[in-house]
Design brief:
By secondary structure, the chain is mainly beta. The protein contains no helices and eleven strands.
C-alpha cells in the first residue's frame, strides 16, 4: 500500500476475508495516515465535515482501524480482521498551508477495496 500526494495505491483492489496485513509505505513528501473504513458507500461519497475530512462517526460506515501520522519515507504494517464487504481506504489528515485548509481526502487520497 503506497501513500503519496494525493493517492492511496493498493497492491490490489480485493482480498479474501480474514486477517489482512497492509504493508504501508509513505512515498510522499508529507505525513499521511491510513484509515480502513467498512462501508457500502463509494469512497468519493463518504460523509464529510466542514473542513473536508471524512466524518469518521458518520452513518453508513465503521472505522475498522488506522495508522496515524506516518512520516515521509517511513513504513509500517497494519493487520486487521476484515469481513466480506466494501471498504474505503483513505488518508484523513487535515492541515493548514498558506492560510488554506487542506483535506488529504478531499485532494483524492481514497480508494475502494473489496473483501470477498
Amino acid at each position: 500500500m503506497t501513500l503519496k500526494e494525493w493517492e492511496v495505491v493498493p497492491a490490489g483492489d480485493s482480498a479474501s476475508s480474514g486477517e489482512i496485513t497492509f504493508q504501508l509505505e509513505n512515498q510522499g513528501k508529507e505525513t499521511h495516515e491510513f484509515v480502513v473504513i467498512k462501508t457500502d458507500l463509494d469512497p468519493t461519497d463518504l460523509p464529510t465535515a466542514e473542513d473536508g475530512s471524512v466524518d469518521e462517526a458518520g452513518s453508513g460506515m465503521e472505522v475498522v482501524d488506522e495508522v496515524e501520522d506516518l512520516p515521509s519515507g517511513e513504513s509500517e504494517e497494519l493487520t486487521v480482521e476484515l469481513e466480506p464487504g466494501g471498504y474505503a481506504l483513505l488518508c484523513n489528515i487535515v492541515e493548514e498551508a498558506n492560510g488554506e485548509v487542506e483535506s488529504h481526502y478531499d485532494f483524492g487520497m481514497r480508494t475502494g477495496f473489496t473483501v470477498e
